[in-house]
Structures are given as C-alpha cells and as structure tokens.
Automatic annotation (TrEMBL):
GO annotations of cellular component type: cytoplasm
InterPro entries in alphabetical order: Depp_CoAkinase, P-loop_NTPase
Annotated EC: 2.7.1.24
PANTHER family: BIFUNCTIONAL COENZYME A SYNTHASE-RELATED (PTHR10695:SF46), DEPHOSPHO-COA KINASE-RELATED (PTHR10695)
Keywords from the named record: ATP-binding, Coenzyme A biosynthesis, Kinase, Nucleotide-binding, Transferase
UniProt GO MF annotations: ATP binding; dephospho-CoA kinase activity
First-tier enzyme category under EC: transferase
CDD domains: DPCK
Gene Ontology biological-process entries: coenzyme A biosynthetic process
Protein name: Dephospho-CoA kinase
Family: Belongs to the CoaE family.
Gene designation per UniProt: yacE
Length: 145
C-alpha cells in the first residue's frame, strides 16, 4: 500500500497549486472534489437518485447534473442539503478509499478540503495543511466560479 499524504486547507488556500506541484513530480492524486464529480456523472446511480428526489429539472438538457440549480436549492433549504450530503458523502468516501487501496505507487497525495472534519486522517500517514491569510483566501475564492 502507498504512503498516503493528506493535503487539506480552506477554500482558496492553494491546495490545487500544491497538488499540481506533487503531480508534476509523478505523485498520483486522489482529489475529493474530482471524486465528488465522478460519483454523479451522467448515467450514474447517484445522479438518478438526485433526479428522482429533486425532479428532472435538476438535470441539464444533456442529462448531466445542473450544479447551479442544485446549489440554489441546497443553500436555501437546509433539509435538502442534509439529504444530499447523506447520499453523497458515504459514496465519495468509499470511492476515495477504494482508489487508495488500488494505488500501488510508493506515495499518494490525498487531497480533501475537509480531511480533518470528515475524520479521514486515519487513512493518512502524514497530513499537510495549507494555511493562508483569510484576506487572500477571500480574494482567491471570489475570483473563481
């Protein structure tokens, strides 16, 4: 099994920049944000459950998840956010752990924004926390998405 280095930090802290530096060195990445998108790809069982719960209007005309519509719903309705988290978090966790177990490289970077909060440090041999001034985080976060 690989030596797992967890990488975490708040929004706009620079996790992606640091992860990309590791990737340039040939270190494989497991990124929670990427896995979260993979588990709700077009045709996936979880996407079907989301559409069943919220209605087909939560899908784009191409049958993909309309993230903007979903964000509007879950930011207005706490119960819907809880429902969605209860559906997605176990699946994301399981997929990430499966990817960790499947990795045969000597090192692996496990990129998870809420690594500590979601009790995932037990799967890490070491943890790197990216910390940056809140003003810089805010500036970076407002420039994206």
């Amino acid at each position: 099994m690989s030596y797992v280095v967890g990488l975490t930090g708040g929004i706009g802290s620079g996790k992606t920049t640091v992860a990309n530096l590791f990737a340039e060195l040939g270190v494989p990445l497991i990124d929670a944000d990427i896995v979260a998108r993979q588990v709700v790809e077009k045709g996936s069982p979880l996407l079907s459950k989301i559409a069943e719960h919220f209605g087909d209007e939560i899908l784009t005309s191409q049958g993909e998840l309309d993230r903007a519509k979903l964000r509007q719903i879950i930011f207005r309705q706490e119960q819907e956010k809880i429902w969605l988290n209860n559906l997605l978090h176990p699946a994301i966790r399981q997929e990430m752990l499966s990817q960790i177990q499947a990795c045969s490289e000597p090192y692996l970077l496990f990129v998870v924004p809420l690594l500590i909060e979601n009790n995932l440090t037990e799967f890490c041999d070491r943890v790197i926390v990216i910390d940056v001034e809140p003003a810089i985080q805010l500036e970076r976060a407002t420039k994206r998405d």
